[in-house]
Structures are given as structure tokens and as C-alpha cells.
Amino acid sequence: FSCDLIRNFSIIAHIDHGKSTLADRLLELTGTIKKKEVGKNEQVLDKLKVERERGITVKAQTASMMHTSGGKQHVLNLIDTPGHVDFAWEVSRSLAACQGALLLVDASQGVQAQTISVFHIAQERGLKIIPVLNKIDLPAAQPERIAAQMEATFGTDPADIIRISAKTGRGVDEVLRAIIDRIPPPSGVPTKPLKAFLFDSQYDRYRGVISLVSIQDGILKKGDRIASCYTKKKYEIAEIGIMNPEENPVNGLYPGQVGYIACNMKESSEAHIGDTLYRVGAAVDPMPGFKPAKAMVYAGIFPIDTSDFPKLEESIKRLALTDRSVTVQRESSTALGQGCRLGFLGTLHMDVFRQRLEDEHDANIIITAPTVPYKIVYKDREVFVSNPTEFPDAIDVASKVKEIQEPVVKASIIAPEEYFGEMMDLCFSHRAEELDHRYLDAGTGTSSRIMLNCVMPLSEIVTGFFDQLKSRSSGFASFDYEEAGYKASDLAKMVFLLNGKPVDALALIVHRSNEDKIGKIWVKKLVKVIPRQMFEVPIQAAVGKKIISRETLSAYRADVTAGLYGGDVSRKMKQLENQKEGKKKMKRMGTVDMPQEAFFDIMSSR
Ligand code: GDP
Ligand code: MG
Fold this sequence. Notes:
The protein has 606 residues and is α+β, with helices and mostly antiparallel strands. Strand 30 and strand 31 form a beta hairpin.
């Protein structure tokens, strides 16, 4: 055995630039999987249903391939990385096990914002980067121009760029050669004490936690007794193998190799990402671990039928075991009942979690609008608040609070030049500051691409920003952001009053410059969804004592019985109760009856 014959690499690519297709071609070319019929497009590494549907990778997957070159059999470990900003944490932990990366760019689309940030992570880790231009078979491909873009953005030498079509297979053999020739082998010594780096884990109902490890030094075999630097707990290796791409048991893992282990670990929390495992009795210095992921977007998840809460909580907990970057807390709301408040890395992350709950756990849920963690600076302490109901009232703000701060991000947008004005407008209307821009491919003539950088509040991008960006750029803009700390901001809690009584569950945190606009919009929405009562109901938006906006819901008259929420209340109730899954339970808010459905409309459309 020799380390020299191992290559550990990953593929960095924007969504849809062809990462999965290239991975499949590499698996085929090395004989790891059988060649598929042309036109069949089921990708081997994207295992979760949500990944197939959305064409994104959420959990990093790993595959090992054997390839003979120069008369020697090499082991190539492909460590898959997610391509989205929300999963930057997964990206950096996958890259920690690699010595090189393919930087894959679509020759018709060009460099995208998210690719740049992943590239920077790879570069900081000292990985050897192999630039690859994909989809050169497309008539719209502009390899020369995109190559120049890569030179301008990444400092790539155009002569190093490999041009391929992952679809037809053209050029893929050259990629395979480059992996062997250009990426350095891992450096590890089999005779040194065992040092295994734990970079991912999954929960298996029968075997407990399955961990993915990369062997730094020493040899790990079945039956070995190992211990964790982090928890000091001891385990015995029950099963060991490589991903090929399915689990394939082997006798031992050698330095530089990447594989899975099962060791009767019962709880996911025992598998600490970034941990170092060593042989019992031969302790080693731990390798530098990872910073734990930090939740930046919070939302409440409630069962549609309140009696489903125990089942929902169980499902959430189970799903959270497979995705350790999600934080879970209980939350109860007068309007929505018992639920959980979850913290996510970003909105896509949130969306993926919601979809997995629905797909894999059959959950019937309502998810509230996302919020961000605000920092409330009191005279003697600081408190983080992510739930509007816990935000201090205007009176407290005036008397006790020194400053309110909100998280901001450094955002970058890449778009064709003709959308520049639209993109500027979009940023300004979302309170962006410190705008600057530069051309990515100056001098290449028509439709150059521009990169726009700015600082903006995270709260401005958690609700619908991405969709607006896409629609206002006809889908041509790409977007990425990174955290940039906290900034003082003029924020306030907006409450809504029904018949003069505040409804907790509807509270919002708003920037004072937007309060009139937001107050108006929400009061108008409430008037539409709240059923008429036997009496007139004032609906108001207020910040502190100040009423921002007001509408009056008129009383219903006897002849109005056909409306969605109108009619005789007791008959309506009966009818509603008959509806399956109890979706339309009435909630009594103040003195106003409000169908739960009306809350759902409001809560989910924020
Ligand atoms: P990923 O999101 O980066 O994993 O991208 P996929 O591998 O799923 O590819 C996205 C789409 O581009 C799919 O419809 C592929 O069939 C297509 N695609 C991938 N590589 C090529 C290529 O070289 N040429 C063409 N014409 N299409 C490709
Ligand atoms: Mg893919």
C-alpha cells in the first residue's frame, strides 16, 4: 500500500453546471458503475429525494473509484460538496478531506456568485484547483469568453483549463488524467499512531451512527478499539468500508483513504464533526476542528392539526439528527398552538428541511415567516432575540435599551450588464449600502457581466429577495452572501390589534423607514382573511402607542351567508369540524373568531 496512489478531490460548481453529470461520467469511466443508457439522467450521488427534485446537493456524498494509470492502480475519492451558500459549512468540512478540486463552470452560463465563494474556501485550504469548462457541446457555449472570465475572476491560466462535455463524455478522460497528474497525494504515514478525521455522519436505524472519516496517519481495521479526542468515549469498529458508491466493506483503511465506519455509536451527538479519532491507549493531538455552524434564519414550525404535535416533534428531532446544523427549540403560540422554533443556516436550508419533513415524514405543517437574530443592547447586557414576541416593547426600548442591532451580510450579485439598473434598484429597496461594482469580463464586448457588491441587512434577504432577483433579471443573476457582523438599526416591533386587542402571533419586526408601508399592506391583508363578525371590527397596526394604519371590518348582514368565512357561526363550525384534518379550527382572538386557516394565510405569506 502507498499513499502516493490516492487522490482525494471534490467538484466545485454552481447548481446545474453539471457536477452530478460529471461525477456519473467519472464513475462510469473508472468502471465503478455501469454505463447508463443515453438520455437517462438519474444521478448516482444525489441520494435524497429533495436533491433530485431540486437538482441540488444537500448532504455531501462520497464515492471511491479505482483507476489504473501508468500501470498502477489509483484510488480516487470523490467527496461531493453542496453548491449553495447556505451549506458553506458542509462545503468546508468536505473540502477538509481533499487535496484538490475540480472548478467546474458552464461554458454557456459563465462564472456564478456562489462558485466564487466556494472557490475561496478551497483556495484558503491550499487545495490544487483544476479548472474545467463544461457543456462545450452546447451551441450557446462561449468557451473563449468564459475562459477569460475565469482568468479575471480566479486568476486561472487559460492553458490549464480542460474543456469538456460531461453529457457526451468528451474530454472527461483528460479530467481523470489531470486528477492523477495535478492533485498531490495525501501525506500520511501508515506506521504512525492512528489519526482519523471525522468529517460527516449519518444515522442508521440498525447500526447507529455511521461516520465518514479520512485517515491522516496509521491504519484503521475492523475490531480496532478507538476513542474520540472530543468526547473521550471509546468504541469498537464493527464495520469499516469505502463508498463505491454504495457501502463496500473492506478490511482496513490506510492513510489518505476516505471511508465509513460503524462502531455502535448510539447518539448522533457523539459524532462530533471535525473530531479526531485515535487508537485506545495511543492518544494523539487533535486536528483543528470546525467552527460549529451558526443559525442565522429562524422560523416556527407548527402542526396543522394541533394533536399532531408529538409526532411532529419526533419527526423534527429525527430529521435534525441527519442535519446537525439545524437548532431546535419548543415554542408555543396562542394562535398556532404547540410547535418548534428552528434555526437554519439560510432560507434555502429552511426550505429543504421543510420539504424533507413533508416528503420523508409525511408532516402536515405550517411554517412561519423567517426572522433573523436581533441583538438588543441593554445598559448592562446584550440579548439575542429572534422571535418577534420576545422583542422589547416601544416603552422598554425608549427607557432601557441602548441600541438595537441587526445582522448584516456582504452580498454579491453577478448579472449581465443590461440588468445592472434593475439590480441596483433591488438592492436600494432592500436597504443596501456601500455599493460598488466591477466588470468580470471587461473588453469582451456585448453583454458583459457585472459583479455588484454591497452590505445589506440579512432580514432583507430572508423573505423573497432571491425570487425577486431571479424575476427581475430574467433568471440571469446569481447571488451570494457572507455574514458581516451586526449594525445598529432603527427597528421596532409592530403589533396588530383586532378590536383593540393585540394579537401576539402576528407581531413583526420592522425598520422604522418601512413602517407605514408594511403596516398598510398587513392591515389590508388582515381585512381580507378575517371573517366578518356580528359587529364592526377595527383592525390596526401599531408601533408603540402610535397607530400606523387602520381598516374597519364591517359587520355582516343577515343575507351574507355565502361568503367563505360568513354565515351562521355554529353551523359553520360544524361544517368546519367535518373538514378533514381539522384544518379550519376557529381561534378566538380578542373577541374575534378567526379560522385557523386565516392565520395560516397570514403567517405563511409574510
Ligand atoms: P449539477 O446541479 O451541477 O449537479 O448539474 P447536473 O449534472 O444535474 O446537470 C444539470 C443539467 O445540465 C442537466 O440537465 C444535465 O443533463 C445538463 N448537462 C450536464 N452536463 C452537460 C453537458 O456537458 N452538455 C449539455 N448539453 N448538458 C449538460
Ligand atoms: Mg447535482
